[in-house]
Amino acid sequence: MKIKVCFLVAEHPFLDARIFKKEAKSLLSKGYDVTMIVPRINGYLFDIDGTFFTNQFHSQTFIYEGIKIVTYERMYLEKHIKKLNYNLQSKKQGRFIDPLTQLGLAEEADIYHAHEFFSLYSGVGIKRALKTLSKKSIKLIYDSHELVPDPHEITSTLMKKHMMSLLQSMLKEVDYVIAVSESIKAWYLSINPFLPVEVIYNSPPLTTNYEPKNFYETTFRIVHEGFVSKTRGNLRKIIEITEICNQKMDVQFKIIGGTKKTDQDIVKIPPHLSNKIELVDWVNYYHIPKEMENADIGWIDLNTTYSLNNMYAMPNKLFSYLNNGLPVLVNKCTDIKNFIQTHQCGLVVNKSEASVEDYCQAILYLCNNRKELKKMSVNARKIMEELYCWEKMEKRLFAVYDQLSSQGKVI
Protein backbone atom coordinates (compact mmCIF):
# COMPACT_ATOMS: atom_id res chain seq x y z
CA MET A 1 0.00 0.00 0.00
CA LYS A 2 1.26 3.47 -0.89
CA ILE A 3 2.22 5.81 1.93
CA LYS A 4 -0.16 8.75 1.91
CA VAL A 5 1.30 12.25 2.21
CA CYS A 6 -0.73 15.37 2.89
CA PHE A 7 0.72 18.84 2.32
CA LEU A 8 -0.79 21.52 4.54
CA VAL A 9 -0.66 25.00 2.99
CA ALA A 10 -1.92 28.16 4.70
CA GLU A 11 -0.58 30.99 2.53
CA HIS A 12 1.30 29.87 -0.59
CA PRO A 13 -0.23 29.51 -4.07
CA PHE A 14 -0.91 25.88 -4.87
CA LEU A 15 1.49 25.93 -7.85
CA ASP A 16 4.34 27.26 -5.72
CA ALA A 17 7.65 26.12 -7.22
CA ARG A 18 9.00 24.55 -4.05
CA ILE A 19 5.76 23.03 -2.82
CA PHE A 20 4.08 21.77 -5.99
CA LYS A 21 6.61 21.70 -8.81
CA LYS A 22 9.45 20.23 -6.79
CA GLU A 23 8.49 18.53 -3.53
CA ALA A 24 5.00 17.26 -4.38
CA LYS A 25 5.94 16.15 -7.90
CA SER A 26 9.10 14.45 -6.64
CA LEU A 27 7.23 12.51 -3.97
CA LEU A 28 4.60 11.51 -6.53
CA SER A 29 7.33 10.21 -8.85
CA LYS A 30 8.76 8.22 -5.92
CA GLY A 31 5.46 6.40 -5.49
CA TYR A 32 3.83 8.34 -2.64
CA ASP A 33 0.12 9.14 -2.70
CA VAL A 34 0.16 12.96 -2.49
CA THR A 35 -2.65 15.30 -1.43
CA MET A 36 -2.34 19.07 -1.04
CA ILE A 37 -4.77 21.17 1.00
CA VAL A 38 -4.45 24.73 -0.26
CA PRO A 39 -6.14 28.13 0.30
CA ARG A 40 -8.46 30.14 -1.90
CA ILE A 41 -8.96 33.89 -1.59
CA ASN A 42 -12.53 35.08 -2.12
CA GLY A 43 -13.35 31.73 -3.67
CA TYR A 44 -10.45 31.58 -6.14
CA LEU A 45 -7.14 29.79 -6.21
CA PHE A 46 -4.28 32.14 -7.04
CA ASP A 47 -1.14 31.89 -9.14
CA ILE A 48 2.50 32.59 -8.28
CA ASP A 49 2.16 36.25 -9.30
CA GLY A 50 -0.98 36.72 -7.22
CA THR A 51 -3.49 36.68 -10.09
CA PHE A 52 -6.66 34.67 -9.55
CA PHE A 53 -7.65 31.57 -11.50
CA THR A 54 -11.13 32.85 -12.34
CA ASN A 55 -11.77 30.49 -15.27
CA GLN A 56 -10.55 27.19 -13.83
CA PHE A 57 -10.08 25.15 -10.66
CA HIS A 58 -13.59 25.86 -9.40
CA SER A 59 -14.17 22.45 -7.77
CA GLN A 60 -13.41 22.19 -4.09
CA THR A 61 -11.50 18.97 -4.76
CA PHE A 62 -9.81 17.91 -8.01
CA ILE A 63 -6.82 16.03 -9.40
CA TYR A 64 -4.06 18.07 -11.05
CA GLU A 65 -1.05 16.39 -12.66
CA GLY A 66 -1.60 13.31 -10.53
CA ILE A 67 -1.92 15.18 -7.23
CA LYS A 68 -5.15 15.49 -5.27
CA ILE A 69 -5.95 19.15 -4.53
CA VAL A 70 -8.35 20.00 -1.70
CA THR A 71 -9.25 23.67 -1.25
CA TYR A 72 -10.66 25.94 1.44
CA GLU A 73 -11.15 29.65 2.02
CA ARG A 74 -7.98 31.16 3.43
CA MET A 75 -7.97 31.85 7.16
CA TYR A 76 -5.94 34.46 9.02
CA LEU A 77 -4.87 32.79 12.25
CA GLU A 78 -2.23 35.46 12.93
CA LYS A 79 -5.06 37.59 14.31
CA HIS A 80 -5.65 35.07 17.10
CA ILE A 81 -2.18 34.25 18.46
CA LYS A 82 -3.20 34.22 22.14
CA LYS A 83 -6.08 31.87 21.42
CA LEU A 84 -3.83 29.55 19.41
CA ASN A 85 -1.40 29.43 22.31
CA TYR A 86 -4.23 28.58 24.66
CA ASN A 87 -5.50 25.84 22.36
CA LEU A 88 -2.04 24.35 22.06
CA GLN A 89 -1.33 24.43 25.77
CA SER A 90 -4.71 22.87 26.61
CA LYS A 91 -3.59 19.53 25.10
CA LYS A 92 -7.15 19.04 23.83
CA GLN A 93 -7.40 18.26 20.14
CA GLY A 94 -11.04 19.41 20.04
CA ARG A 95 -10.00 23.06 20.16
CA PHE A 96 -8.48 22.86 16.66
CA ILE A 97 -11.56 23.77 14.65
CA ASP A 98 -9.99 25.65 11.72
CA PRO A 99 -10.82 24.32 8.20
CA LEU A 100 -7.27 23.28 7.38
CA THR A 101 -7.18 21.04 10.44
CA GLN A 102 -10.59 19.55 9.68
CA LEU A 103 -9.82 18.87 6.01
CA GLY A 104 -6.43 17.42 6.92
CA LEU A 105 -8.01 15.18 9.51
CA ALA A 106 -10.41 13.80 6.91
CA GLU A 107 -7.50 12.68 4.72
CA GLU A 108 -6.11 10.35 7.41
CA ALA A 109 -2.66 10.51 5.81
CA ASP A 110 0.48 8.85 7.13
CA ILE A 111 2.79 11.86 6.84
CA TYR A 112 1.68 15.50 7.08
CA HIS A 113 3.98 18.16 5.62
CA ALA A 114 3.27 21.73 6.82
CA HIS A 115 4.70 24.63 4.82
CA GLU A 116 4.15 27.62 7.08
CA PHE A 117 4.02 28.56 10.73
CA PHE A 118 0.23 28.52 10.81
CA SER A 119 -0.20 25.34 8.76
CA LEU A 120 2.10 23.72 11.32
CA TYR A 121 -0.46 24.67 13.98
CA SER A 122 -3.06 22.73 12.01
CA GLY A 123 -0.61 19.86 11.64
CA VAL A 124 -0.26 19.59 15.41
CA GLY A 125 -4.04 19.55 15.74
CA ILE A 126 -4.32 16.76 13.16
CA LYS A 127 -1.60 14.71 14.82
CA ARG A 128 -3.31 14.96 18.20
CA ALA A 129 -6.75 14.18 16.82
CA LEU A 130 -5.67 11.09 14.87
CA LYS A 131 -3.84 9.78 17.92
CA THR A 132 -6.90 10.30 20.13
CA LEU A 133 -9.72 9.36 17.77
CA SER A 134 -8.16 6.72 15.53
CA LYS A 135 -5.21 5.55 17.62
CA LYS A 136 -3.09 6.35 14.56
CA SER A 137 0.44 7.67 14.94
CA ILE A 138 1.38 9.93 12.06
CA LYS A 139 4.55 11.86 11.24
CA LEU A 140 4.65 15.64 11.04
CA ILE A 141 7.18 17.61 8.96
CA TYR A 142 7.64 21.37 9.27
CA ASP A 143 9.03 22.81 6.03
CA SER A 144 10.28 26.16 7.28
CA HIS A 145 10.58 28.37 4.20
CA GLU A 146 11.61 31.21 6.50
CA LEU A 147 12.04 32.10 10.15
CA VAL A 148 8.75 32.80 11.90
CA PRO A 149 8.87 34.74 14.11
CA ASP A 150 11.73 36.77 12.65
CA PRO A 151 13.63 38.10 15.69
CA HIS A 152 14.66 41.26 13.81
CA GLU A 153 11.27 42.15 12.36
CA ILE A 154 9.63 45.36 13.51
CA THR A 155 6.67 44.20 15.55
CA SER A 156 5.60 44.32 19.17
CA THR A 157 7.74 42.54 21.76
CA LEU A 158 4.61 40.91 23.15
CA MET A 159 3.63 39.52 19.74
CA LYS A 160 7.11 38.06 19.25
CA LYS A 161 6.89 36.50 22.71
CA HIS A 162 3.53 34.85 21.94
CA MET A 163 4.77 33.65 18.54
CA MET A 164 7.96 32.21 20.00
CA SER A 165 6.03 30.43 22.73
CA LEU A 166 3.73 28.96 20.09
CA LEU A 167 6.67 27.79 17.97
CA GLN A 168 8.46 26.16 20.90
CA SER A 169 5.32 24.25 21.81
CA MET A 170 4.68 23.12 18.23
CA LEU A 171 8.26 21.96 17.70
CA LYS A 172 7.83 19.47 20.53
CA GLU A 173 5.36 17.59 18.32
CA VAL A 174 7.31 17.84 15.05
CA ASP A 175 9.13 14.77 13.75
CA TYR A 176 11.36 16.55 11.24
CA VAL A 177 12.17 20.13 10.25
CA ILE A 178 13.23 21.06 6.74
CA ALA A 179 15.11 24.37 6.51
CA VAL A 180 16.25 26.41 3.52
CA SER A 181 19.67 27.49 4.80
CA GLU A 182 22.37 26.34 7.21
CA SER A 183 21.86 29.33 9.51
CA ILE A 184 18.14 28.66 9.78
CA LYS A 185 18.97 25.04 10.59
CA ALA A 186 21.33 26.23 13.34
CA TRP A 187 18.61 28.55 14.67
CA TYR A 188 16.22 25.62 15.12
CA LEU A 189 18.91 23.51 16.73
CA SER A 190 19.54 26.32 19.22
CA ILE A 191 15.92 25.85 20.32
CA ASN A 192 16.15 22.06 20.44
CA PRO A 193 19.55 20.41 19.80
CA PHE A 194 17.90 17.03 19.32
CA LEU A 195 15.50 18.15 16.62
CA PRO A 196 16.09 16.36 13.28
CA VAL A 197 16.73 19.12 10.70
CA GLU A 198 17.65 18.82 7.02
CA VAL A 199 18.55 21.67 4.67
CA ILE A 200 16.85 21.50 1.29
CA TYR A 201 17.73 24.50 -0.84
CA ASN A 202 15.30 26.21 -3.22
CA SER A 203 17.13 24.86 -6.24
CA PRO A 204 15.64 24.33 -9.71
CA PRO A 205 16.10 21.19 -11.80
CA LEU A 206 19.37 21.25 -13.72
CA THR A 207 19.06 23.34 -16.87
CA THR A 208 19.31 21.23 -20.00
CA ASN A 209 20.97 22.33 -23.25
CA TYR A 210 23.26 24.59 -21.24
CA GLU A 211 25.88 26.44 -23.25
CA PRO A 212 28.93 27.92 -21.45
CA LYS A 213 29.19 31.70 -21.72
CA ASN A 214 32.08 33.57 -23.33
CA PHE A 215 31.64 36.96 -21.59
CA TYR A 216 33.32 38.90 -24.38
CA GLU A 217 30.39 40.86 -25.80
CA THR A 218 30.53 44.64 -25.55
CA THR A 219 27.16 44.88 -23.80
CA PHE A 220 27.19 43.81 -20.13
CA ARG A 221 23.86 42.26 -19.16
CA ILE A 222 22.54 42.01 -15.60
CA VAL A 223 19.44 40.04 -14.66
CA HIS A 224 17.14 40.33 -11.65
CA GLU A 225 14.68 37.49 -11.05
CA GLY A 226 11.54 38.45 -9.14
CA PHE A 227 8.71 40.89 -9.54
CA VAL A 228 9.11 44.57 -8.68
CA SER A 229 6.65 46.66 -6.71
CA LYS A 230 6.56 49.71 -4.50
CA THR A 231 8.18 47.71 -1.71
CA ARG A 232 10.02 44.84 -3.47
CA GLY A 233 12.62 44.47 -6.18
CA ASN A 234 14.65 47.63 -5.55
CA LEU A 235 13.56 49.24 -8.81
CA ARG A 236 15.01 52.58 -7.74
CA LYS A 237 18.46 50.99 -7.39
CA ILE A 238 18.10 49.21 -10.72
CA ILE A 239 17.30 52.50 -12.46
CA GLU A 240 20.15 54.37 -10.79
CA ILE A 241 22.69 51.58 -11.34
CA THR A 242 21.77 51.43 -15.02
CA GLU A 243 21.98 55.19 -15.40
CA ILE A 244 25.37 55.56 -13.70
CA CYS A 245 27.01 52.48 -15.25
CA ASN A 246 26.03 53.58 -18.75
CA GLN A 247 28.21 56.64 -18.34
CA LYS A 248 31.24 54.32 -18.58
CA MET A 249 30.05 51.18 -20.40
CA ASP A 250 27.09 49.61 -22.17
CA VAL A 251 24.99 48.00 -19.41
CA GLN A 252 21.52 46.50 -19.73
CA PHE A 253 19.27 45.30 -16.91
CA LYS A 254 16.63 42.61 -17.36
CA ILE A 255 13.91 42.15 -14.74
CA ILE A 256 12.21 38.75 -14.95
CA GLY A 257 8.94 38.80 -13.06
CA GLY A 258 7.15 41.94 -14.07
CA THR A 259 4.93 43.81 -11.66
CA LYS A 260 1.89 43.04 -9.60
CA LYS A 261 -1.28 44.33 -11.22
CA THR A 262 -1.81 46.72 -8.32
CA ASP A 263 1.57 48.32 -9.04
CA GLN A 264 1.50 48.52 -12.84
CA ASP A 265 0.57 52.21 -12.82
CA ILE A 266 3.30 53.00 -10.28
CA VAL A 267 6.27 50.96 -11.46
CA LYS A 268 7.56 52.78 -14.53
CA ILE A 269 10.85 52.71 -16.43
CA PRO A 270 12.10 56.22 -17.32
CA PRO A 271 11.75 56.80 -21.10
CA HIS A 272 15.46 57.52 -21.58
CA LEU A 273 16.29 54.05 -20.18
CA SER A 274 13.62 52.12 -22.07
CA ASN A 275 16.30 50.50 -24.27
CA LYS A 276 18.47 49.70 -21.23
CA ILE A 277 15.99 48.17 -18.77
CA GLU A 278 13.77 45.33 -19.96
CA LEU A 279 10.78 44.43 -17.83
CA VAL A 280 9.60 40.89 -18.60
CA ASP A 281 6.29 39.69 -17.22
CA TRP A 282 6.16 36.68 -14.94
CA VAL A 283 7.24 33.63 -16.93
CA ASN A 284 6.60 29.94 -16.52
CA TYR A 285 8.94 28.36 -13.98
CA TYR A 286 10.45 26.10 -16.64
CA HIS A 287 11.08 28.99 -19.06
CA ILE A 288 13.31 31.02 -16.72
CA PRO A 289 16.59 29.55 -18.09
CA LYS A 290 15.67 30.73 -21.58
CA GLU A 291 15.22 34.27 -20.28
CA MET A 292 18.71 34.19 -18.70
CA GLU A 293 20.63 32.86 -21.70
CA ASN A 294 22.31 36.13 -22.68
CA ALA A 295 22.94 37.50 -19.19
CA ASP A 296 26.39 37.99 -17.65
CA ILE A 297 25.56 38.20 -13.93
CA GLY A 298 22.60 37.78 -11.59
CA TRP A 299 21.86 40.50 -9.02
CA ILE A 300 20.54 40.11 -5.47
CA ASP A 301 20.02 42.97 -3.02
CA LEU A 302 18.49 42.04 0.33
CA ASN A 303 17.56 44.44 3.12
CA THR A 304 18.98 42.82 6.26
CA THR A 305 18.42 45.70 8.67
CA TYR A 306 15.13 44.43 10.06
CA SER A 307 15.15 40.88 8.74
CA LEU A 308 17.12 37.92 10.04
CA ASN A 309 15.38 35.98 7.27
CA ASN A 310 17.15 38.10 4.67
CA MET A 311 20.44 37.76 6.52
CA TYR A 312 20.09 33.96 6.40
CA ALA A 313 18.39 33.76 3.01
CA MET A 314 19.32 31.42 0.14
CA PRO A 315 16.58 32.55 -2.27
CA ASN A 316 15.30 30.81 -5.40
CA LYS A 317 16.92 33.41 -7.63
CA LEU A 318 20.39 32.58 -6.28
CA PHE A 319 20.14 29.02 -7.56
CA SER A 320 18.46 30.11 -10.79
CA TYR A 321 21.48 32.26 -11.55
CA LEU A 322 23.98 29.53 -10.66
CA ASN A 323 22.00 26.98 -12.66
CA ASN A 324 22.48 29.11 -15.75
CA GLY A 325 26.16 29.77 -15.11
CA LEU A 326 25.61 33.35 -13.93
CA PRO A 327 28.01 34.69 -11.30
CA VAL A 328 26.09 36.35 -8.49
CA LEU A 329 26.48 39.95 -7.33
CA VAL A 330 25.03 40.44 -3.84
CA ASN A 331 25.30 42.55 -0.70
CA LYS A 332 26.62 40.99 2.53
CA CYS A 333 24.21 38.33 3.79
CA THR A 334 25.60 35.62 6.06
CA ASP A 335 24.69 32.46 4.17
CA ILE A 336 25.02 33.74 0.62
CA LYS A 337 28.39 35.34 1.44
CA ASN A 338 29.74 32.09 2.91
CA PHE A 339 28.39 30.13 -0.04
CA ILE A 340 29.90 32.41 -2.68
CA GLN A 341 33.26 32.60 -0.93
CA THR A 342 33.34 28.81 -0.57
CA HIS A 343 32.51 28.12 -4.21
CA GLN A 344 34.01 31.23 -5.85
CA CYS A 345 30.87 31.75 -7.91
CA GLY A 346 30.23 35.46 -7.56
CA LEU A 347 31.13 38.75 -5.89
CA VAL A 348 29.94 39.99 -2.50
CA VAL A 349 29.83 43.71 -1.79
CA ASN A 350 31.02 43.59 1.81
CA LYS A 351 28.29 45.86 3.18
CA SER A 352 24.94 44.90 4.65
CA GLU A 353 23.45 48.00 3.03
CA ALA A 354 25.21 48.27 -0.32
CA SER A 355 24.66 51.55 -2.12
CA VAL A 356 24.12 52.21 -5.81
CA GLU A 357 27.73 53.39 -6.02
CA ASP A 358 28.94 50.15 -4.36
CA TYR A 359 27.16 48.06 -6.96
CA CYS A 360 28.39 50.23 -9.82
CA GLN A 361 31.99 49.76 -8.70
CA ALA A 362 31.47 46.00 -8.48
CA ILE A 363 29.86 45.86 -11.94
CA LEU A 364 32.72 47.88 -13.43
CA TYR A 365 35.22 45.50 -11.80
CA LEU A 366 33.47 42.42 -13.20
CA CYS A 367 33.14 44.01 -16.62
CA ASN A 368 36.90 44.71 -16.66
CA ASN A 369 37.87 41.25 -15.41
CA ARG A 370 36.19 38.91 -17.86
CA LYS A 371 38.58 35.97 -17.24
CA GLU A 372 37.70 36.01 -13.56
CA LEU A 373 34.03 36.30 -14.46
CA LYS A 374 34.39 33.26 -16.70
CA LYS A 375 35.91 31.22 -13.84
CA MET A 376 33.04 32.24 -11.57
CA SER A 377 30.59 31.12 -14.24
CA VAL A 378 32.26 27.72 -14.63
CA ASN A 379 32.20 27.25 -10.85
CA ALA A 380 28.54 28.27 -10.66
CA ARG A 381 27.42 25.69 -13.18
CA LYS A 382 29.71 22.99 -11.76
CA ILE A 383 28.38 23.21 -8.22
CA MET A 384 24.82 23.00 -9.49
CA GLU A 385 25.65 19.91 -11.52
CA GLU A 386 27.51 18.20 -8.69
CA LEU A 387 25.88 19.43 -5.48
CA TYR A 388 22.88 21.73 -5.54
CA CYS A 389 20.46 21.14 -8.43
CA TRP A 390 16.99 19.89 -7.50
CA GLU A 391 17.97 16.36 -8.53
CA LYS A 392 20.44 16.45 -5.60
CA MET A 393 18.01 18.16 -3.21
CA GLU A 394 15.38 15.59 -4.13
CA LYS A 395 17.61 12.89 -2.66
CA ARG A 396 17.66 14.78 0.63
CA LEU A 397 13.86 14.97 0.57
CA PHE A 398 13.56 11.24 -0.10
CA ALA A 399 16.00 10.51 2.74
CA VAL A 400 13.79 12.43 5.19
CA TYR A 401 10.71 10.53 4.06
CA ASP A 402 12.52 7.17 4.07
CA GLN A 403 13.65 7.78 7.63
CA LEU A 404 10.19 8.70 8.84
CA SER A 405 8.58 5.82 6.96
CA SER A 406 11.02 3.26 8.37
CA GLN A 407 10.61 4.23 12.03
CA GLY A 408 7.71 1.84 12.41
CA LYS A 409 5.10 4.40 13.40
CA VAL A 410 3.75 5.23 9.97
CA ILE A 411 0.87 2.84 9.22
Describe this structure in words.
- The chain is an alpha/beta fold.
- The chain has 2 domains: 214 residues, Glycogen Phosphorylase B (Rossmann fold); 167 residues, 3-Layer(aba) Sandwich (Rossmann fold).
- 39% of the residues lie in helices and 17% in strands.
- The chain contains 14 helices and 14 strands.
- The strands form 2 sheets. Strands 3-4-2-1-5-6-7-8 form an 8-stranded mixed sheet, sandwiched between helices.
- β9, α7 and β10 form a beta-alpha-beta unit.
- α1 packs across α14, α2 packs parallel to α5 and α3 packs across α4.
- The longest helix is centred in the C-terminal third of the chain and has 19 residues.
- The radius of gyration is 22 Å and the shape is elongated.
- The termini are close together.
Helix and strand arrangement:
Layout: E1 4-8, H1 17-29, E2 33-40, E3 61-64, E4 67-73, H2 81-90, H3 99-107, E5 111-114, H4 117-133, E6 139-144, H5 157-171, E7 176-179, H6 182-191, E8 197-199, E9 220-225, H7 235-245, E10 251-257, E11 277-281, H8 288-291, E12 297-300, H9 308-312, H10 316-323, E13 328-331, H11 334-343, E14 346-349, H12 356-368, H13 370-388, H14 390-405
Helix pairs in contact: 1-14, 2-5, 3-4, 7-12, 10-13
